[in-house]
Amino acid sequence: MAASSTLGQTQRYAAGALLALALRQAQTHQTVLLGSHGLNDEQPHPDPASAVEPDARDLWTHESRGLLRPVLRFLEIDPKAWAGVEKTAASSDPKHHIGAFLRKVVEDEDDDEKARSERSDQELALAKAVDAMAMGLESSIVESAAEALKPGSCGPDDDPASTRAKDYRKMAVLYMLLSACVADVNMAEEGMGSPRVTKGYDARHRVALRLLATWLDVKWNKMEAVEIMVACSAMAAAKEEEQSRENSSPSSRWENWKRGGIIGAAALTGGTLMAISGGLAAPAIAAGFTALVPTLHTLVPVIGASGFAAIATAAGHTAGSVAVAASFGAAGAGLTGTKMAKRIGNVKEFEFKTIGENHNQGRLAVGIFVSGFAFTEEDYSKPWEGWKTNLERYVLQWESKHVIAVSTAIQDWLASRVALELIREGAMQTVLSGIISAFAWPATLVSAAEFIDSKWTMAIDRSDKAAKMLADVLLKGLQGSRPVTLVGFSLGARVVFKCLQELAHMGNNEGIVERAVLIGAPVSVKGEMWEPARKMVAGRFVNVYSTNDWILGITFRASLLTQGLAGIQAVDVPGVENVDVTELVFGHSSYLSLVQQILDHLELNSYYPVFYPCTPRTK
Question: How does this protein sit in the membrane (predicted)?
């Protein structure tokens, strides 16, 4: 049995096969959008196998991609079985295999009662730690989180013992797979040199784990709790490696990583603890881990009782984000330490700022939010502050002078007598209906467009340059090799889209961005690299639009004479999820106050896209 796992040989094989199937399915859903084929469609739902690219090397499960084989090696699966796992994932319908592999991972293998009991104790300890951490993520009620970790506590439900045991096994599987994905260890074949160790958490791995958690019926907030534990573990390993680099070989470092056990270094150890608690209920989690010290010390002797007890006095630090990012390959002070990664053109402002006093520092996934319509500098952060997410949160403040100038010009014109008259006459709806077909604008509308156009053209130019700078930041890994979620509205959505285009142009950057959301995007439907941009996003790619947003149609058409606009219509590109928020948005400036509601509606933590009408919030 693997030293770092409670799982038996067959269970580890099944876990690796499930990850392979999830990787393949996630890649398929980049082009075959879930839910896009109704029950009454004449065309049957395409077989995932039929969506295989001509060149098998493009598959995420191909040996050249480095996504699957390091995980299989970490799980200590016989290399002779790797090709079979890859072939099954690439060429078979997953529904024929998922059920069988799921049964294998939750069933006990035929071993003695003592071994089963020890494994059960380990998995119970992990499940309790995950429950407490998840409760901390969801609530500030510290007592409930502490209660979940008390010895003898069986959790909030009254499920039979056998059901609970299977749930504990599921957490063990997910913890093990995440550790394997993060470790990303390519051990050399025996007799062929030292192992090569690379750090990182690939966005494609996270999307696959999100799908796998869905198959296992595990709530995503529990997986986020596991990520926090692994983040701590990675920091502990990095600290230990730094201290012992001169006196240890690569193979011994590999053994140090593995022997962390099922709990890993979840609480960190030896006085070097940097608890990634952030907004968690830190006292509750500390109390829970302290209560479990005797059990954990027995299960994971390498950590020691003092190491687990250390969490009782530790809390989140702003240094947590820098420490985790550094553990995953970031140089310097991370995102907030770099105001200008690479100056492009005349861009004078490009800076990452944390959102609120606590930006969830130290998480294994990062969110970068980009505003593109603002009247003050505070408007760059305000739209995102109320959105509850467990991402490490940053807002990109870029060229506020130009963004504020064009936003103010639009608002001033809307308040003018001419605009009010045009609105009364319904001229604006004529503009929207003519965005796709030729039409003649009223003279007063042409003059309005010209009034806004110079400022809009400048802002468009700066947004495209800021996008290249954002791509440069991501390519340099200033966020650490962690999955990134990009969300932007108005000109900020254009920054996000053009950043994805730049990543596609540079090539081989598919593992950086996990999710992308464009809200009210001034991006042409035609003439843009939508398909390559889509491939840069491992998970969901959402285009949010409003058919009422006529001011976007006026300004963008006057500037670039485009035909078709993502901010006011659906984008017919495979794998792009279109969400109509017309019932919410009555003008472009509405996005300033509606971003949180829109993001809540999208349910981004769900693997499967949400397709239900977006209606105004009732008071």
Answer: Multi-pass membrane protein
Q: Collapsing DSSP states into helix, strand and coil, what is residue 248?
A: coil
DSSP 326-376: HHTT--TT-STT-S-SS--TT---EEEEESSS---TT-SSEEEEE----SS
User: According to the model, what pLDDT value does residue 50 have?
Assistant: 44
Residue 413 — pLDDT band, cuts 50, 70, 90?
confident
Taking 80 as the threshold, does the pLDDT of residue 162 lie above it? no
Q: Helix crossing, 250-258 with 220-244: angle to 10°?
A: 150
Beta-bridge mates of residue 186: 196
3-class DSSP state of 192: coil
Tell me what pLDDT residue 159 has.
Answer: 57
Q: How far apart are the first and last CA of the chain?
A: 57
More confident: 246 or 71: 71
According to DSSP, residue 424 is labeled: H
**555-564 b/e with 16+ CB inside 10 Å = b?**
bbbbbeebeb
- Listing DSSP states for 13-36 in one string gives HHHHHHHHHHHHHHHHTTTS-TT-
Residue 585 contacts residue 618 (beta carbons within 8 Å): no
For residue 312, what are the contacts with CB-CB under 8 A and spacing of at least 6?
Answer: 286, 287, 289, 290
Q: How confident is the model at residue 425 (pLDDT cuts 50, 70, 90)?
A: low
Report yes or no: 221 and 137 within 8 Å, Cβ to Cβ.
yes
* CA–CA distance, 580 with 594 (Å, rounded to integer): 13
Tokens of 591: 């996005």
* Residue 547 DSSP label: T
- Closest among 475, 515, 516 to 493, alpha carbons compared: 516
The mean pLDDT of 501-521, rounded to a whole number, is 95
Residues in CB range of 422: below 8 A, 6 or more apart:
428, 442, 444, 445, 448
The pLDDT tens digits for 355-388 are 876 667 778 899 999 999 999 999 999 999 989 8
Q: Residue 537: name the closest of 154, 316, 207 by CA.
A: 207
How far, in whole angstroms, is CA 499 from its chain's centroid?
16
Cα Rg of the chain, angstroms: 26
Amino acid at 381: S
465, HSE (Cβ side, Cα atoms, 13 Å): 19
Residue 434: count other Cβ atoms within 10 Å of its Cβ.
14
